[in-house]
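Protocol step 4 of 6: structure prediction from sequence.
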Amino acid sequence: MQTIVSLFQFFFYSLSIIEADRRVSLKDFTIRFPFNRDKILSNPREIRDYISPEKVVILLFQTFSKSYVMKKFAFPLVVFVGCLTASCSEILTATFEDDAINSPPATDLPGSPRGDIIQFNPVMQPQLKVQNSDISGSKALHYTHVSIEDPPPVSDQWLSFRGIGTDLTETLWFRHTAENMGATILIDLSDGHVHLMARMRIKSDGEVGLATVINDQYSDVIGNLASGVHTVIFTAFPGTLRYNVSIIQESGPTITASNKPMITDNVLRFNNPAHPMLSFLHSGSLGNTYAIGSVSISRREP
């Protein structure tokens, strides 16, 4: 968020210089971009939650389209647009590199973006231990199916990665790299407000199935995972209620499924802005582990 504040401070400073030279007015900007300057600088969530970086880029170039402005501010504008696009595209990034070994992960994720979090019931802490690993980086979160005292309802046993607010009219990429150590794991994609986009199950024997409706028992089998590290990439198109999924294996062929219908069948049910979320739940026998090396949610293709 602080990055966005700094970028807009730079942008408005540039505009003030231009206006002082009396060759363009701030009105040229505010007419096309209907947000108050002070409101943006004090609450950058206005930009992050409701406007995609692509839309901002178009508005900026419309504003700076006069030849004099482009000549004088071409380089800073390119830098500004590049930084803005990069900072606004990421919705969640989790690598566990800053977490202590043998401890649960920090729930407030460090670095950019600001506001992405990990959610889990505190009683699940014995199931969640960060360990040294080369799955993705130098550490991984070991999610192990062990007994917990006074377990909550199953609906409250999910391990969830919840992104910052974003516009659901844009394409989203959900990605995680992991290694399955004999677990049966359920994976949900949602808008962060209980409305599901997709459901996947990876069984202990490697079978991968997708759910076609909310109560479906993962009847759409799309392939089998070999042992070793794998990367799952969901490409979600909420506007058309469709998604693709690819699973890239360290040892084995890539598994793909395209143009699958989302669980939610009415786009108006999604919260917008949403907080895209990737969630995991053990569904097999005790003692098995699903080791997660990294998780990301982005509006930029990985």
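Step 5 (inspection) to follow. The chain has two domains: 2-90, 95-298.
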